[in-house]
Automatic annotation (TrEMBL):
This is beta-galactosidase. Keywords: Calcium, Glycosidase, Hydrolase, Signal, Transferase. Residues 720-841 form the Beta galactosidase small chain/ domain. GO terms for molecular function: beta-galactosidase activity; carbohydrate binding; transferase activity. It comes from the Bacteria. Its EC number is 3.2.1.23. It is an enzyme of class 3 (hydrolase). Residues 289-416 form the Glycoside hydrolase family 2 catalytic domain. Monomer. Residues 53-186 form the Glycosyl hydrolases family 2 sugar binding domain.
Amino acid sequence: MKRKFILFLCLITMFCSLRAQQTGKLYLSGTGNDNTVNWDFFCTAGANSGKWTTIPVPSNWELQGFGKYNYGFNKEENKGKEQGLYKYTFKVPADWKNRKINIVFEGSMTDTEVKINGKSAGETHQGSFYVFRYDISKLVKLGSDNLLEVKVSKYSANQSVNEAERKADFWIFGGIFRPVYLEALPESHINSVKINATANGRFEAIVNASGYYNRIETKLTDENGKVFGFIPDRIVMYDDNKNHYIGYTLPKPKLWSTEFPNLYTVTFTLYDGGKPVHLITKKIGFRTVEVKERDGVYVNGVKMKFKGVNRHSFYPSSGRTTNKKISIADVLLMKEMNMNAVRMSHYPPDGHFLDVCDSLGLFVMDELAGWHGTYDTPTGTKLMKEMMLNDENHPSIIFWANGNEGGHNRELDHLFAEEDIQKRPLIHPWEVFGGFETTHYREFNYGIGNYDHGHNILMPTEFLHGMWDGGHGAGIEDYWNAMWNNPLSAGGFLWDFADQAVVRTDKNGELDTDGNHGPDGIVGPYHEKEGSFFTIKEVWSPVFVEKREMTAGFDGSFTLENRYAFTNLNQCTFNWKLKKLKAGTDAAFKSGKADVPNIKPFEKGKLKISLPGDWRSFDALYLTANAPDGKELFTWSFPIIMPKDDAEKIVVKTASGKVNFKEDAKVYQVSANGINLTFDKITGLLQQVQNTKGVIPFSNGPILQEGVNNFKGFTQKMDGENLVISSKFDKKESWNTLQWTIYPSGWLKMEVEYFPSDYFTTFVGLNFSYPESEIKAVEYKGNGPYRVWKNRMKGTQFGIWKKDYNDSATGEAPWQYPEFKGYYSNMYWCEFTGKQQSFKVVTDQEDIFLRLFTPKKSKDTEYDNMSPTFPNGDISFMNSISAIGTKTQKPETTGPMGMKNIYYDFDKAPSRALNMTLYFDFSTNTSSLRGGTTKQSQ
């Protein structure tokens, strides 16, 4: 009977609530850059100024061809200080009579004066990124035309606002860049609610209301609309501010986390007697955030490691004006990289971005603006409260940040705890504050070394400053291993998410990053994926797969570590695939699913694959882990066949003809099966290659990189049908040796044994000359399709890859990825497609790097930390390669993987030398390896 009564009461409440007035909403602008409304507009200076025209709202006026573009670092005398004058005529619905009518601006840059029908709506709002409103009930005319006039000053009359916002390290725009709308409230209405829903099921709310009422009713429904909790609350007394406390404990709610973003809808209904007069709804999540001093950050009782990135509200063609589709795309890309956190840099975001973080699951650090400079206390207090009022109920927000890198007005600190019912932790990014060490861009040895001996919770709010191809992925494996294994580490936030190249309407649509100032991200301006995207995806995978070789004794078992916080690995799915790789065609394969083990968070266990009996006849095994929602976490690849096995199949040694040899005082000339080879008799270097179609311009090698080309004493002899040209080993003068073998087939074998010239080397290997102007494409078997660096090896897959030539530089137009030039790991073979002729190179050794030319140097910073170091020559085959730095760090300071290669003194003993074996096919028939025009999908 009791259950029936409660059900009846819920049905009556639902029926009455439907008749309560909701807050009316009427957009005067559009809702984002994909939905705008034209307003009359006048720009006072710069492009297209001095005349009335129209402009889409919301927008930044620079992107519409008005005013002057500015980066925050521009000198004061070069800053655009234009104003924008807006006019718009609108009608207020006649049935809004006896309602409170507000006009709401979600964001306007920077000082905003508002008039309705010629009368001021209130004091000028100062501050760009905050939702503000005016009560215009007495200024509007119902059912007839009203005139809205807005004057927006790009440069603030309040110098503290300029210090906090307009001198910052990001693009500075002007205009009404977020939506504008009217809201209508009944005479008795709810002004605001503050909600705290915790993991133990405790629900608390402070409801502020106006007018006449005697009861507030609270109802929670789940994602299916089913009533989860019903809280009738009869108001007997209330304080002078009409703040009403509601408290209730609900049984076993589904908790909110980034892994399981369970949301509930809470509806507050205001009653006057038995009549519902106003209702509002909010999306909430039950979760608890707790900071334990000298320990860590706990969410729902679990200690967290934050895998985060910084993110600006930005889109190239519209500046700070975005839309919900962009927010969804951004969060999905972050989740695809296995991130679980995002920091708002350096101001509050659009409301729809927080909505998406709530629904898709991403921890958020929300930030009051202040980049090195601070708001004065009265202004900062007002803006902080506006941020809190708009953002506070989002379960995704688990941190507040008061400014950035010295932009901390400490007089505002107390307000965060006073205003926030949830008492979320407050961060001062770049400072040691509140038990957190958040210092930015600590070098690995200095930072990690100090971290190991410190006492604060370690959570750098910016680390690994991306720039071009450096940063982000380069060094992250070292940093993350240290962070993961340090009990005091709470993870950190990369800088930053996306390239901020803005469309210059004053420069024929050029994408401008202001040189190296505009933040350089993991993805391009239109979200093009760079190589670091996939490195991060692998390093931050919540499923960690222990390294495993595909030996003859492999029984299909993999050791897994569960790096989820709330997910058992038996909630994931695992698929495997065996492939026989063939250039240019689809690979033959067998596939299946693996039985998923019961592995709890932070524990290890075994995954067993039931492999077919012929599994060793395949080239590679691929293992894919999928999250509970079915999205791929990562696909790991494991070569089965070795390079020597491929070489045995590919290299042709015999033919019906024979090897012909002649020499003069300077050169050896060798011919076989239509191939003519010329070698320098003194140095042994390959000078020229020619076949029946003409010269192949591959020559001048092998030149040792960071080794001495002291090949000497060459002799030649026949070894059966093969011609062998070899140098003489001498411990004092010619300790590096070179041997060529020419087979009757025309194939050429090169064997080099050598010693690096130094104990520390940037790279070691062999260089050849080949004109870049001649190359058209390459197809190779190895790891790809993205290039690698010594300190960024993760994120690739083993396969056969076809890459057409491009000359793109990372982080610059045309943002073409994958790049062509650079290092590629674990090469088995490569076919070079020239504009005139092709040739191929095969190795029988593991772990050989292919180097393709020297990437174009990007416009670098004054630090010149990430300029890539490359060998001499054009095409190289390397035993080791160089690392790359970040904007703020040299390669060697990003961790052990970024340091130079170390080779011990081998005492010039031939048995201890490095070695390289390559086979060359210069014939006119390269069809055995040639494939299609697109890279093979793995």
